[in-house]
Design brief:
The complex is a heterodimer. Chain A has helices at 2-24, 42-58, 79-91, 104-116, 147-160, 174-186, 205-214, 225-237, 257-260, 280-293, 299-317, 325-333; strands at 28-35, 62-63, 66-74, 97-99, 120-123, 140-142, 165-171, 190-197, 218-222, 246-249, 268-271, 344-346, 352-363, 369-381. By secondary structure, chain A is an alpha/beta fold. In chain A, helix 4 links the parallel strand 4 and strand 5. By secondary structure, chain B is mainly alpha-helical. Classes of the chains: A alpha/beta, B mainly alpha.
């Protein structure tokens, strides 16, 4: 009797397992979205998540004709936690794509685990130079930009406008140092001072006094997140906006404008896109995004939206096949989709070749703030590291 | 480097020091009187800023918002005291560190759950939104002068309270020998609760005052907490006068150091070496100062006599 009961239990158990296994192997393409969804930078990850989900929704919940399952995880801006979560996505959820993260230090941690785990890794924001040269990988793509390029935009603008003396201000960590190096690549005038502030410094009064004393022709700054919110407001209060033109990277964008508000109006930044860009894909994207989520999308949302469209285009080309990673990677590399930012194609290293613009902060008639295109600075611009990338066979 | 720039940076240093004093005053009271390490002081500062932001948005006026935020911060501090801290007074310092650190984590997530992760905007009150021209091309916001005035007023108030009132006398006695005060018939638990609540209110006041010029976001109290501890260690634990002078000293050293370290080093090193060394040393200056003070005066500059 016990023997029979045990066999029945075993059979039932196996049956249950088989059903779940069957449910798992139902024909869904799985995307693991790793974003920063907690801490001060959470708004950036939220934008990316919302942008990606909007695209999937517009495609009817399918990518490349197959039902799509998007699994969202939070890296908490901690590289070690990110690695654990990515391994979970690969081993437990069996994702075909890993999309993310926002921050370069997290990307540096998950790059190897994600690619070794057989997924295609697409960074929808972080664009460190580390994987743009010799370390490029055929299954690694970036749909944002190579980080230096944005800083180079401002350097070129300063050079074009004939500024002879510029003051540089950035936080004292790797990205801050990279920003100054990127700026100086095209700017050939005199750098009056390279001023570094501690990371998370919130009070800039003493730096503003130094800037006023140095009397430069322009200021270039890279001051992301809460630091940028404070710098912009204090810069305006100190009366420096009229005297020293404010050229910035990642300091005034749709994630910080709700806090900076009127203080940021008229300040300049650099980006591949702005919400007011006049092409049909973008107009539809911005309208749908604001209708769905109620806030102005920034580049983080746009890039994630493009990533979903990119994956869709790649899967369409392979007929929905995710087993042959080589063919899938080649299909993705064709970038056969319409980006919200206009012309978009991939460089040999998987980073984009695209146009870059000078943007300016403006207040919309409905009271919300956004960046707007001023002028094109670079056309079909690739990064300086791609020449070191030898395409793998 | 000009005399005007030096004066402006001194003013900036003093203003930074006053903000530090506002935060450290409550911390030194609690640590000195109750021998209680309150790491949660930083989040009380943050909660004060959030209350101010919420009430200012609700009432539309900064003064009303501030007036509402203070009792709210006091009530919140008392709530924390009754629920958590009361049980920790007799425990080891390490237990107190653990519990208050847990409160930091809890409240950082808590304010994010209630108000979201994005920084909040608190507008400067219109009456104080002007600027004065300190040097050519640089306007100094009147609001920062108001902060300096508020800090000096709080310092004066605390001095009068602690040294010239009966309650202050009990606080000083409790700091010297809590058991004896209890034996003399004073309800020492209630005294502790009052001190703690007052400390929380001071932290909340600092947060509310600072909210219009710094961004109000989760985690804003964490960095400032470390500086506050440096202030009370240098000033002498339990001493308001020590906290005041140490805060001003730290504000000046940090601001002037960051502004002029490279310039001073340029006298002995070549420009690029000087700028690199200056950049590395400047953030360390206050900790070097703390180490030096502790080396010569281990109990701080103005220790409370026990």
């Amino acid at each position: 009797m016990t023997e029979t009961r045990r066999s029945v239990a075993l059979a039932l158990g196996l049956g249950l397992v088989a059903t779940t296994a069957f449910a798992q192997s139902a024909d869904k393409v799985r995307i693991g979205l790793i974003q920063t969804l907690s801490g001060p930078a959470a708004t950036l990850g939220q934008q990316a998540r919302d942008g990606f989900n909007l695209a999937v929704k517009e495609l009817g919940g399918k990518l490349g004709g197959r039902d799509a399952e998007v699994i969202v995880v939070d890296d908490e801006l901690k590289p070690d936690i990110a690695v654990t979560k990515v391994k979970g996505l690969l081993d437990r959820d069996k994702v075909d794509f890993v999309v993310g993260p926002i921050f370069s230090n997290v990307l540096l941690a998950i790059h190897k685990p994600a690619l070794d785990g057989g997924a295609i890794l697409i960074s929808a924001n972080a664009g460190p130079s580390s994987y743009a040269g010799k370390e490029c990988h055929p299954n690694f793509f970036v749909t944002s930009y190579q980080n230096d390029q944005v800083h180079e935009v401002l350097g070129k603008v300063a050079q074009n406008r004939g500024y002879k003396k510029v003051y540089l201000l950035a936080p004292n960590y790797q990205a801050g140092r990279d920003s100054m190096a990127g700026f100086k690549r095209h700017f050939k005038g005199e750098v009056v001072e390279e001023s570094y502030v501690p990371l998370n410094n919130l009070d800039f009064q003493s730096e503003l006094a130094k800037i006023a004393a140095a009397q430069p022709e322009a200021l270039f700054t890279f001051m992301p997140g809460g630091m940028g919110v404070n710098l912009v407001r204090q810069y305006r209060q100190a009366g420096l906006v009229e005297r020293v033109p404010f050229l910035s990277a990642f300091t005034v964008d749709e994630s910080t404008l709700p806090a900076q508000q009127d203080a940021a109006v008229g300040l300049l930044g650099g980006m591949t896109w702005a919400p007011n860009m006049d092409n049909p894909v973008n107009k539809a994207f911005v309208a749908a995004f604001e209708k769905e989520f109620g806030y102005v999308p920034g580049s983080y949302a746009m890039q994630a939206y493009d990533t979903a469209k990119l994956i869709d285009s790649g899967l369409k080309a392979t007929g929905g096949n995710t087993a042959d990673k080589k063919a899938l990677s080649a299909a993705i590399r064709k970038a056969d989709f319409k980006s919200a930012r206009g012309p978009f194609k991939f460089n040999a290293n998987g980073y984009p070749i695209q146009d870059f613009y000078l943007v300016k902060v403006a207040k919309r008639p409905d009271g919300k703030f956004q960046t707007e295109i001023v002028e094109k600075v670079f056309e079909n611009y690739g990064d300086v590291y791609s020449k070191d990338c030898k395409p793998a066979s | 480097m000009s005399a005007t720039l030096l004066l402006v940076q001194t003013l900036n240093g003093l203003q930074f020091g006053i903000i530090l004093f506002l935060i450290a005053a409550g911390l030194t009271l609690v640590f000195g009187v109750m021998d209680f390490i309150n790491l949660a002081h930083g989040v009380q500062y943050m909660v004060g800023a959030y209350f101010a932001a919420a009430f200012v948005a609700w009432t539309g006026s900064f003064a009303a918002g501030l007036a509402l935020a203070l009792p709210a911060a006091l009530a919140f501090g008392l709530l924390l005291e009754v629920v958590v801290f009361r049980h920790l007074y007799d425990r080891d310092h390490l237990d107190q560190v653990l519990a208050t650190f847990g409160i930091i984590l809890f409240l950082n997530q808590g304010v994010k759950a209630v108000w979201g992760a994005a920084p909040l905007l608190v507008p400067i009150p219109p009456a104080l939104s002007g600027s004065i021209e300190l040097m050519s091309g640089l306007l100094y916001p009147v609001y920062r002068l108001a902060i300096i005035a508020a800090g000096l007023a709080v310092g004066g108030l605390l001095y009068v309270l602690v040294h010239h009132t009966r309650a202050g006398m009990l606080v000083r006695a409790g700091a010297t020998n809590a058991a004896m005060v209890s034996a003399l018939g004073v309800d020492i638990r209630r005294l502790f609760m009052v001190v703690f609540g007052f400390g929380a209110m001071l932290a909340g006041f600092a947060g509310a005052m600072v909210a219009p010029i710094l961004s109000v976001e989760p985690g804003m109290g964490d960095n400032i907490l470390i500086l506050a501890f440096v202030v009370i260690v240098i000033g002498g634990i339990g001493s308001i006068r020590g906290a005041f002078l140490a805060a001003l000293l730290i504000g000046l050293v940090d601001t002037l150091g960051r502004s002029f370290a490279s310039n001073i080093l340029r006298l002995v090193l070549d420009p690029s070496m000087a700028s690199q060394t200056g950049r590395a040393i400047a953030p360390m200056l206050i900790y070097i100062l703390m180490a030096a003070v502790l080396f010569f005066r281990p109990t701080g500059l103005f220790p409370v006599k026990r």
